[in-house]
Amino acid sequence: MSRLLRTLGYVAVIVGGWSLYVRVADVPAYLLPAPEEVLGALATLVGEGELRPHLSYTARNIVLGFAGGSLIGIALGWGLWSSRLLRELLNPYLVLLQAAPKIAVAPLLVLWFGLSLTSQYVLILLLVFFPMMAATMMGLRDVPADVATLGRLLNLSRPRYLFTIQIPAATPALLAGAKIAVIDAMTGAFLAEYLSAQRGLGYLMILGNTSNDTPLLIAAVLVTVLVGLTGFGLVSLVEKLRRI
Amino acid sequence: MGELLSVREVGKTYTGAKGQQVTALADVDLDVAEGEVVALIGPSGCGKSTLLRMIAGLDGAFDGELTWTKPPRPGKDIGFVFQEPALLPWRSVERNVSLGLEALRDNSSEARQRVRDLLELVGLADFAQCFPKELSGGMRQRAAIARALAYDPRILLMDEPFGALDAITRDRLHDDLLRIWEATRKTIILVTHSVEEATYLADRVAVMSARPGRIKAVHHVPLDRDRDPSTRRLPQFAEFAGMLRQELE
């Protein structure tokens, strides 16, 4: 209850400050519309049924991209952790790939894969796999030496060792990685839509921007923030449930 | 008492970080009989833990011979207790203890009964559903001992199992181990650096020296098998512990 009140307090302070500033400084609406105008734009979006297809399109891309990128990242992390050769072979490429700014890579992807879903997914996967890979490697290293020895003494098979010891031991690190990865998945999805899509929340922002509909732009940003909070909240919830 | 294990002229040499040859163990001879408690005692770096790991089958790179009357079956015959409890924090005490049985796919009612009996034996019956973080250090180590005994191994190997505990808890666990031995008659090899611990718990004590690790002498403990806290006050106890201490100097 007090948490809800606190959250409402935060929102009230932001909205109040925003509203006050717009009025006192007499900011023109095309620069910063008043909160009620943005709310109006949002209501129109919802009322005309326009928000749902865009929202579900983006949400689907985020979920699929996050799941796919996590699988690739976990598999790669496990491979790199278990094989020294693979680690030494792939490490330079992976670091290079991670160091490359994804915004710069994005137009290239559009060039290679066209204005299609493929280029969007490739971008999301590129962003998601790295934190998950790093988290997997870190998590697997968290298995204490004695526990690893115990696995050998009990003659645990490789899959059994993976499922009874390695994965549970790595779960806290994996969840920490997932928190970063879920945000990255969203960044990737919006970035991809910004560049190439005809649908999605990123597209709504572009639409708002190019048609000088600033309330629409801000409304789209607000929905985006909500989507981000939801994704982050879901991972945190899983984390909390696990601790009970 | 039948012979269980004989160690003959076992040695181990490895290449150190700077490329030099390091002799960790040299000419180690030791016999272990069934049902016997043997303590390996020595200064740190004498290779006592290395020897224990060899016996456990964790380290196959050594010279000499380790002969078992019946070779240990993997995952079935070696019970091992580490200095740290090494419990899995996401499993309840009961599920930690039954880990070895799970690995053997032993789901029988006897196995489950065995886990319950062991928890009873180590005084954790009321804590079966607790998680390791809810237990004290001594209770965790008791759970680790129960885990090592759950699949009824032929031998129990203990690597400084009480080294990380405070003195009062340690004394209590000594008595627990005596009770466990009384109930199970397991063969136990106990690595320790405490002369009192070796005297109180063991039938025989092998004193090791460092660099290279060798067995200097093997002594029979001149005490009845029936021991309790009053044993610690016997003159023979102090005398034997004093002799061990002198030998370690």
From TrEMBL, chain A:
Transmembrane segments: 7-24, 62-81, 93-115, 121-140, 161-183, 216-238
PROSITE patterns referenced in this protein's UniProt entry, alphabetically: ABC_TM1
Single GO biological process annotation from the record: transmembrane transport
Subcellular location: Cell membrane
GO CC annotations on file: plasma membrane
SUPFAM superfamilies linked: MetI-like (SSF161098)
Record-linked InterPro entries: MetI-like (IPR000515), MetI-like_sf (IPR035906)
Domain called ABC transmembrane type-1: residue spans: 51-235
Gene3D superfamilies referenced in this protein's UniProt entry, alphabetically: MetI-like (1.10.3720.10)
Origin: domain of life: Bacteria
Record keywords, A-Z: Cell membrane, Membrane, Transmembrane, Transmembrane helix, Transport
Family stated for the protein in its record: Belongs to the binding-protein-dependent transport system permease family.
Protein's UniProt name: NitT/TauT family transport system permease protein
Organism this protein belongs to: Nonomuraea soli
TrEMBL record, chain B:
Keyword Cell wall biogenesis/degradation tagged: no
A Pfam entry, by short name: ABC_tran
Transport keyword on record: yes
Gene3D superfamilies per record: P-loop containing nucleotide triphosphate hydrolases
GO molecular function terms listed in the Swiss-Prot or TrEMBL record: ATP binding; ATP hydrolysis activity
InterPro entries in the record: AAA+_ATPase, ABC_transporter-like_ATP-bd, ABC_transporter-like_CS, ABC_transporter_ATP-bind, P-loop_NTPase
Keywords: ATP-binding, Nucleotide-binding, Transport
PANTHER family: ALIPHATIC SULFONATES IMPORT ATP-BINDING PROTEIN SSUB 2, TAURINE IMPORT ATP-BINDING PROTEIN-RELATED
Protein name: NitT/TauT family transport system ATP-binding protein
Organism: Nonomuraea soli
